[in-house]
User: Fold Amino acid transporter transmembrane domain-containing protein from Sporothrix curviconia.
Amino acid sequence: MAKPGNLAIDGADPRIYDQLDRKSAEREAAERSLTHDQETLGAIDGTTTTTGVATGAGGAHRRREHDPTISFEQYHYYAQQTRAEEDAQPKTAYETTIWSLFFPSKSDGIVKRADPNEKRDGEGVGRMVVSDEEWTNASRALRTATRGAIFYLITTDILGPFGLPYAFATMGWGPGIALFTVFAALAGYSGFLLWEPFMGLDSYEYPVRSFGDLGYRLYGRWMRHLFNILQSVQLLLNVGLIVISNGEALSQVAKFKLCFVVCCLIWAIVGFLVGQVRTLQKFGWLANAAVWINLVCMFVTMGGAAHSPPNYAGAGSSAGATISGGALITPNAQGVFPPVQTSGSLPDTGSFIGSVGGAMQAIFAYGGSMVFPEFMAEMKRPKDFLTAMWAAQAFIYFWYMFYGLFMYGYQGQYTVNPSYLGISNYSIQTAGNVFAMLSAVIAAGLYGNIGLKVMYNNVFVELLNAPPLTTRAGKWMWVGVIPVYWAIAFALAAGIPNFSGLTSVVAAFCILHFTYTFPPLLSIAYLVKKNAMREGDGYDPATGQVVRGDSGFARFRRGFFSPGRWWMNSVNILYIGGALALSGLGAYASIMTLKTAFQTSVTTSYVCKSPLDG
Assistant:
């Protein structure tokens, strides 16, 4: 799923961009005034003056971040310059070894940050002037992460591994292993599809900072808004999922003596307090600690599953509830539950809904693609992202597979989602729940922080003219918006305490698209635009002019059917179609699961009885 670990990168303060943006805006306003005065004088004495801003030559920092007048060729030109500079950077002997992948160095090769407030010789406007050198130095200063750091951050997950046992229980050994393997391979391919456009569009002059930036530069403003909306929805639902899982864990620790809706409310209040932290650097060491806490929870859970029977009290929320009409989890007249059973093929769920829901849990494990552009944006050499990403995906594949199969083998149809709630031994159960709750509350704070910032910056600031978070008014508005954000998360938690149904919704509507639909969509647009350029086409930095020999369908056809890449474009179209079809099936299955749960009163809203209490 979406990883909060990208916020733990030991890099420069990202607010440096906010400072530079404000200074650039003031400089641009001064230049507009100067240009107006020059044009007025020119009209009097018969001369004309054109600024670099008007022609597009140089001064990349003087344009607003999402400027529709900047062409693909201009982005691509500066990206090539940046890649050449990165390739010229010397690598240490340590960076070329396999150990650097697993044990990243925090200090090796970090670029010294340029002080954006430092006054330089020759600057007549004083501290409020942003030179080209300052802008590029600031961009370099934010790129400090090595491939080892990225490997570590991609493997940071909170909910992904704990839903996989449920996926195997609803799909069986064979289909479960096969689908999880396919999803892993395609996730690695999607990472490549995101990496290639990033390498061709990101530069020190025009840095790519998010998924939305890639969408904007290849499709336009509407794609950027679509990405930002889905990202905000996914992060909000992730917060709701964490409130649900922690509410269930707390109710289990309290032996169901505490009202379930109160358990959820407690975590919503905790999240509200944690969410008051605006600067993500204060979350960094906690995010790193969450990785190890999560691993401890996994091993504790496996030990409990191997040495104690399943949690029969929570059988109603287990995978067996969707198999054979619940017959495999129904006790006999003497109150004895059926033995643990596993299936080599698809279990009899009565329809495809249960199995598709299980597939959505497997997809949930590969939701980190949503923040891959953010990872690359903070790397010294984004070229190294591929090796880190593929190694991380292999690591996730092996350990998640091992954990999921281990838990399914011991608990079979009694597997619960999240899996740490399915342990019957109270001591081991409590230990796992405590570790899980601690890890999850860190994640909730991070998800809430990212999600609310995405929503605030792209909706409140851009569309509603709210004050930026770097201002005093913005800070006070942040304090007021936080309770609203967490109140919505609490409403989700209390209104839909069906964890598997809600995770399926998140996977089908958000995670699946960021991992399997959007990467090939971006790749097609990038390859078409890039390969459509002929000799003589491109951007001239001296004049600021873009040269294109033709336009329209002829240009699109040349770019799509370019030698050596037409097959990838064709494969990507099929890839997009398959992802959309799976998303439709997943959306239908998850909605029907929630609908059935409400109709049968398995899931009710705002009640005291925990879903795990019989």
